[in-house]
Amino acid sequence: xxxxxxxxxxxxxxxxxxxxxxxxxxxAGNLILPPLLGFKSGNLWWLVALGFCVSGxxxxxxxxxxxxxxxxxxxDFAKKVSPLFSVVYCYLIYAIAIALPSPRTASVxxxxxxxxxxxxxxxxxxxxxxxxxxxxxxxxxxxxxxLGKLLTPGILIILLMMIxxxxxxxxxxxxxxxxxxxxxxxxxEGYQTFDAIGAVVVGAVIIISINLKExxxxxxxxxxxxxxxxxxxxxxxxxxxGGLILTGALYxxxxxxxxxxxxxxxxxxxxxxxxxxxxxxxxxxxLACFTTAVxxxxxxxxxxxxxxxxxxxxxxxxxxxxxxLGVLVGQFxxxxxxxxxxPSLMFIYPITIILILLNVVPDNWxxxxxxxxxxxxxxxxSIPDFLGSVGLGGHILPYLDWIPLSQHQMGWVLPALIxxxxxNAFNRNF
Length: 430
Prior knowledge:
Elements: H1 2-25, H2 33-41, H3 45-70, H4 74-78, H5 83-99, H6 101-114, H7 122-138, H8 143-169, H9 182-191, H10 195-213, H11 219-250, H12 261-273, H13 275-307, H14 312-330, H15 334-360, H16 368-389, H17 413-429
């Protein structure tokens, strides 16, 4: 029976699961990040690409692996620290999701599909956009799910054509970069994909789907399936993100140095594929952004509904407030929203990365005490980066230069690692 599962169905299951994972992380809003990163990195594009894919590909895929191990929900990721901490963490994650990446989809839609063709205000776009999001969130339908399955291949085909055209037609004569910290800059820009957060929030949906489709498979077979699918999805994401960063680097001298993220993506698309393909890409990206916004609002409303005894009223109020917040924040340009997101990401992303890694390692290396100490140290050493991102760290940052990687805004990494090692050594000896 085990052989029958692995041979006839494994290839199909692997393909379906890998594409589902790829689609989960292949957010339309994320596409505006890599080209500008490459545009600024020049000859150091490969270092930036590696950094970007650490936080934008590797960590999210590990988040799915952790879900496969836990077979639970977002709450289970942090419950070893304490149930109260886990609840607070869940609220923070959903608050950030509904306040930043959701409104950003409206801003991307305005700059990609509305502003270049119509003289319309961003407030009007945001208002109409989130009115429709609210309608779809209240009246659940499978139309967007079906549409989402078509949008990802469409966007992917256009992007691959754009990347291939740039690679095959441009001279690999890169301009020297002035970027002083390319690898860490790539990692920090990868935070803006929100994919690590996406992994812990909606990764459980992938696990549930696999459990429903592979009822005869053993726990280990499903873990291997997820591991292989994650590898293939990760390779796909690496090629797309790396290709977009390379493409941006190739066009470093073709646009104004102050060009915005959305304008650069549109400009490269027009130069490589022409105006028609650029228009099609704008439409597809906008539709994909819309499905993402509906998913975020619906997911957050479901969470609040569950916290209030499955109250429909709580669901509707959350959906309304989420869309109202989307209108208020979504009217600002993409660059501003990305800047505003930095402080929250400097605080929540290190915690999320640590929780993912602690849930991936074997259980005998991740006792509750280890969770508590490592997460506590991560929070403590993330505070200076958080304060620095809001302009309040000027008085304390000079005293923290002795912390390795603090100059890269990742001063939490080594303390967390040391705490992990010593906590496990202490637990084994006493």
